[in-house]
Design goal:
This is Serine/threonine protein phosphatase 2A regulatory subunit. The chain has 488 residues and is mainly alpha-helical. Helix content is 64%, strand content 0%. It has helices spanning 2-8, 16-22, 41-50, 73-83, 97-115, 123-139, 167-182, 188-191, 197-205, 212-228, 233-251, 257-269, 277-287, 296-313, 318-327, 334-348, 353-371, 376-383, 389-397, 399-416, 420-436, 438-475. The longest helix is centred in the last third of the chain and has 38 residues, at 438-475.
């Protein structure tokens, strides 16, 4: 393969000894290059195949940065970047071993260079850096070619993740990109032309990678791009919102939701007050619907943190958030119900009295069903609300409305719930409410008994009606085998 590539490349007219005289010790201390790699014929063949030295004014990419004058280091930097623009097949470990090691050593040199406060990056250097990263990360290893495990319709938490065989190179490229973006030598006003919307979109697309190491690197990169390039912030927010919309309403599959939410957790803390309408729309139309998928447990912690940050920024949002959770309440998924209850308890700890009064009736109607849940964890979690001092204060202030709503559920539990722990918790809550307002509880008991008597009476009447119909039917003559056509 390399011979075919070499035959198509432009030939360098310099004599071989000129290169060795310019670089007698090049690469002697670099990992993976071997001893005196510049004079090594195999290394020169690999270098020539990967990058023809005649392209950049005679700068040989195998030279070490310390071996060239400061004025030439940026050109050498570009040469080394071009050297790393050739990608290899890592599915076969025995293929192109020497060339892979040469590229890896060069990537390490580039990483070291950008980490050591280099001079200001020129626009050609920025272009070459973005090109090298794009070729290695976007074109050759697109996320569509990797398997995906996390879906909202399947429980794949026990599956082993798939690790990319090219990670020995990819990791260095990602580390390079992080250092490059955060370097003080990179001016945002110059770099924004190349770290553009297309580049950022491809970064966001890569979050669907199954490799968790890659997603961690991408999280660091996107966060730093967001911090450095203020001009791109609205675009990043919009693009990530689109990923969330697609995940919830279309594909139901994405591996990087937790990482994207983790980035936004810190982004939300930086929002200025009062919150822009754009940010509120992101909460209502992106974050709240993310409670819908069955795979909520994979990213629940990050999602809950984002929602809490919004409410801390603007406490008036608490009521609308709780109504949104009630809208997506998981009727048939008990594990998700426990998560919802945990999140609502956190919100109730910071909600204002005014906002609480707006949502207390639908909220406690839902809690009433949770208290009577046959899944003991759901019932326990709902009963634990009464151990929270802040929630107890809210209830006490609005007990005339709330206690009549929840007391029947407590009575039903006390009479016939199968779980002993739930039964004990129910009795404790009843005692607590009785101490809060004994007269109101006695009225609730009286109303409950009246309702039960009415229900019993209705059941008896229904039973009598059915018995009357059955008796009347027995008195009718049997029609034999005659078929009767009944029409409306």
């Amino acid at each position: 393969m390399w011979k075919q590539i070499i035959s198509k490349l432009p030939r360098k007219s310099q004599k071989p000894d000129q290169d060795s005289s310019r670089n007698p010790n090049s690469g002697s201390n670099k990992p993976g290059l071997g001893r005196d790699s510049a004079s090594n014929p195999a290394a020169k063949r690999a270098s020539a195949a990967v990058f023809p030295a005649s392209v950049i004014a005679g700068i040989e990419p195998l030279l070490a940065f310390k071996d060239v004058p400061s004025s030439e280091r940026m050109n050498l930097f570009i040469s080394k970047l071009s050297l790393c623009c050739v990608v290899f097949d890592f599915t076969d470990p025995a293929k192109d071993i020497q060339e892979k090691e040469l590229k890896r050593a060069t990537l390490l040199e580039l990483l070291e260079f950008v980490s050591e406060n280099p001079p200001k990056f020129s626009e050609p250097a920025i272009l070459a850096s973005c090109k090298m990263c794009s070729i290695n990360l976007f074109r050759v290893f697109p996320p569509s070619s990797r398997s995906r495990t996390i879906s909202s319709g399947e429980n794949d938490n026990d599956d082993e993740p798939t690790f990319d065989p090219a990670w020995s190179h990819l990791q260095i490229v990602y580390d390079f990109l992080v250092k490059f973006v955060t370097s003080s030598s990179l001016e945002a006003k110059v770099a924004k032309k190349h770290v553009n919307h297309a580049f950022i979109l491809k970064i966001i697309d890569l979050f669907d990678s199954e490799d968790p190491r890659e997603r961690d690197c991408l999280k660091a990169i996107l966060h730093r791009i967001y911090g450095k390039f203020m001009v791109h912030r609205p675009f990043i927010r919009k693009s990530v919102s689109n990923v969330f919309y697609r995940f919830v309403f279309e594909v139901d599959k994405h591996n990087g939701i937790a990482e994207l939410l983790e980035i936004f957790g810190s982004v939300i803390t930086g929002f200025a007050l009062p919150l822009k309408e754009e940010h509120k729309i992101f909460l209502w139309k992106a974050l709240i619907p993310l409670h819908k998928p069955k795979s909520l447990g994979v990213y629940f912690q990050q999602l809950s943190y984002c929602v809490t940050q919004f409410i801390e920024k603007d406490p008036k949002l608490a009521g609308s958030v709780i109504m949104g959770l009630l809208k997506y309440w998981p009727i048939t998924n008990s594990q998700k119900e426990v998560m919802f209850l945990s999140e609502i308890e956190e919100i109730l700890e910071v909600i204002s009295m005014t906002e609480f009064q707006k949502i207390m009736v639908p909220l406690f109607c839902r809690l009433r069903h949770c208290i009577n849940s046959y899944h003991f964890q759901v019932a326990e979690r709902a009963l634990f609300f009464w151990n929270n001092d802040q929630i107890l204060k809210l209830v006490a202030h609005n007990r005339q409305v709330i206690l009549p709503l929840v007391f029947p559920a407590l009575e039903i539990n006390a009479q016939k719930h199968w779980n002993h722990s739930v039964l004990n918790l129910t009795l404790n809550v009843k005692k607590m409410l009785t101490e809060m307002d004994e007269a109101l509880i006695l009225a609730c008991i009286s109303n409950y008994r009246e309702e039960q008597e009415k229900l019993s009476t209705a059941v008896e009447k229904r039973k009598e009606v059915w018995e009357h119909l059955e008796n009347a039917a027995r008195l009718q003559p049997i029609a034999g085998n005659i078929a009767v056509l009944v029409t409306n």
